[in-house]
Every structure is written in C-alpha cells, then in structure tokens.
C-alpha cells in the first residue's frame, strides 16, 4: 500500500474525497512501472469512473527497462541527465499508456480527467489535448514548461494535488 493510501485510510470515520481516492489509485498503478529512473502512474476518469490506467515502462513485448531494455534509463546520469534526451528513451510514459490503452479498448477519452503522480512531459501534454482530456490532477511536479503552457493554452484545468508529497 502506498503512503498516500495509508494516510487516507488512517483517518478514522472519513472517506477519501474523489481526488484523494483517484490519486491513491494512480499511486497504486505506479507500482507496476518498470522504468529504472522514475515510477509514474496515471489514470483516466470519466463520470467518477476509471476508464483506463497506465504506468511507465517499455512497450508491450519488448525487453523491460529493468532488464536493460532502455539504454537511456540504464545509462549513467552524466550521459543522459534526468529530463533530457527523452527521444532516446524506449519507455512509454504513464499518461501515454493510459490514453493508448483507452484507444486500444475503444474507450472514449473526451471530457475525461487525468490523474498522474508526476506532471506530464510535453509529448504527453500534446496527447492529452488531442485526446480531449479536460482536467489534469498532478502529484509531484516535473519541470516541463512547454507542456504546461500547451495545457493552459488549450484551457485544460490543472490542479496540483495537495494530498501527497
């Protein structure tokens, strides 16, 4: 169980609100991540119902990141610093996987909310705009100003979740 889940359930007599509940699910999904650098979980929600989940790692059927499947993630940080050379990364991002899984199973993402344990990169932000996501609830912040600027330009509501540090 994640720290967020434990904190939510320790409060006697108080059910988690919807944002707490869905963010705790995103943290649970994050546990499946296989990237050696960062574990991220994301879920898409529509009408208070989870429609898709995603976590970061290499694409289906390829060698897992933890087994050496991504040269960038397995290289020294001096060669590929965090947040840089993402075009050299073989891993799919959690937000990307949530959107792709919805598409794979024929689930509409228009007017959905995305909960993510880390703020998304520029590529994932572009995917969210084009997938019709209308709100993003973000856990920890990842420095990507262009992505957040695109989200703001598209009038997508951004909420920094305060329940998990």
Textual characterization of the structure:
The protein has 6 helices and 5 strands; from the N terminus they run ααββααβαβαβ. By secondary structure, the protein is α/β, with parallel strands linked by helices. Helix 6 (145-153) links the parallel strand 4 (135-140) and strand 5. Helix 5 packs parallel to helix 6 (145-153). The two termini are 16 Å apart.
List keywords for this structure.
globular, alpha/beta, 165 residues, five-stranded mixed beta sheet, 6 helices
> How large a portion of the residues is in β-strands, by DSSP E?
15-25%
Q: Determine the mean pLDDT.
A: 89
Helix content: 25-40%
Question: Uncertain regions: pLDDT < 50 for 5+ in a row?
Answer: none
The best one-word shape is globular
**How many distinct beta strands?**
5
Tell me the distance between the termini.
16 Å
Number of helices: 6
* Biggest β-sheet description: 5 strands, mixed
- Indicate the radius of gyration in whole angstroms: 16 Å
Spatial strand sequence of the major β-sheet: 2-1-3-4-5
List SSEs in N-to-C order.
HHEEHHEHEHE
The computed structural class is alpha/beta
Task: Summarize the topology.
Layout: H1 3-10, H2 18-30, E1 41-46, E2 49-55, H3 71-74, H4 94-104, E3 113-118, H5 122-131, E4 135-140, H6 145-153, E5 157-160
Parallel strand pairs: 3-4, 4-5
Antiparallel strand pairs: 1-2, 1-3
Provide a short characterization of the protein structure.
By secondary structure, the protein is α/β, with parallel strands linked by helices. It has six helices and five strands; from the N terminus they run ααββααβαβαβ.
């Amino acid at each position: 169980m994640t720290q967020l889940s434990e904190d939510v359930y320790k409060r006697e007599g108080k059910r988690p609100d919807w944002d707490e509940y869905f963010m705790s699910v995103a943290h649970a999904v994050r546990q499946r991540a296989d990237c050696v650098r960062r574990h991220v979980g994301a879920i898409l929600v529509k009408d208070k119902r989870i429609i898709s989940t995603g976590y970061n790692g290499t694409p289906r059927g390829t060698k897992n990141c933890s087994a050496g499947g991504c040269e960038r993630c397995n290289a020294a940080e001096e060669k590929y610093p965090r947040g840089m050379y993402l075009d050299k990364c073989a891993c799919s991002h959690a937000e990307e996987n949530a959107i792709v899984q919805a598409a794979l199973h024929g689930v509409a993402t228009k007017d959905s909310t995305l909960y993510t344990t880390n703020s998304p990169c520029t590529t994932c932000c572009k995917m969210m705009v084009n997938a019709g996501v209308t709100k993003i609830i973000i856990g920890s912040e990842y420095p990507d100003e262009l992505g957040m600027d695109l989200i703001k330009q598209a009038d997508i509501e951004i909420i920094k979740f305060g329940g998990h540090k």
